[in-house]
């Protein structure tokens, strides 16, 4: 083997090792958090320039969402079931694309192993749902515990409104009643 190829091979192997699913998932979470880090609660979406993706059905059934916006033009709408604290839909909107995962990250579950609470990872596949006539992939982001339900997340996706403006969105459902796919499908302009 040529000595000139050795550094390339080592670099390639290190790159492959650094792109493990758990590291990719961690980077994905950090990038999503960075996109939304300056959100502040407000009572208006007037400053947001991207189309506002919302859930008219949940607004009718659960009431208006909590609104948060940032100076960078991002927003978060949080819909909370009035009587079920573990049932919610969160819509994130951004003028910038959200990061993309190459594969669904492993599901991490708390599990008793030999009397000790530990984390067990379980491979998972993408699931898909129809959001505004588009197939969108989603996965279990975290499993619930005593203080929350399971969290399910879509990957980031762009949508273009009838007026031609485009935004980038990511949806998160918290649920203990297996309502992720139906809730994802309840969004619109």
TrEMBL record:
Domain of life: Bacteria
Name by which UniProt lists this protein: Lipoprotein
Phylogenetic placement of the source organism: Bacteria, Pseudomonadati, Verrucomicrobiota, Verrucomicrobiia, Verrucomicrobiales
């Amino acid at each position: 083997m040529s000595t000139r190829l050795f550094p390339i091979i080592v670099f390639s192997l290190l790159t492959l090792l650094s792109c493990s699913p758990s590291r990719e998932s961690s980077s994905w979470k950090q990038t999503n958090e960075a996109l939304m880090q300056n959100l502040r609660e407000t009572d208006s979406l007037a400053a947001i320039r991207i189309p506002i993706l919302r859930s008219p059905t949940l607004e009718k059934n659960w009431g208006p969402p909590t609104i948060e916006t940032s100076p960078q033009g991002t927003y978060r709408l949080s819909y909370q079931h009035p009587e079920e604290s573990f049932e919610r839909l969160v819509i994130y909107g951004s003028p910038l694309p959200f990061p993309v995962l190459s594969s669904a990250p492993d599901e991490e579950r708390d599990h008793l192993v030999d009397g000790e609470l530990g984390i067990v990872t379980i491979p998972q596949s993408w699931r898909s749902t129809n959001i505004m006539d588009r197939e969108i992939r989603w996965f279990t982001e975290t499993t619930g515990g005593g203080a929350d339900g399971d969290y399910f997340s879509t990957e980031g996706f762009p949508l273009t409104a009838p007026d031609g403006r485009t935004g980038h969105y990511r949806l998160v459902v918290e649920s203990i009643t297996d309502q992720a796919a139906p809730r994802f499908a309840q969004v619109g302009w």
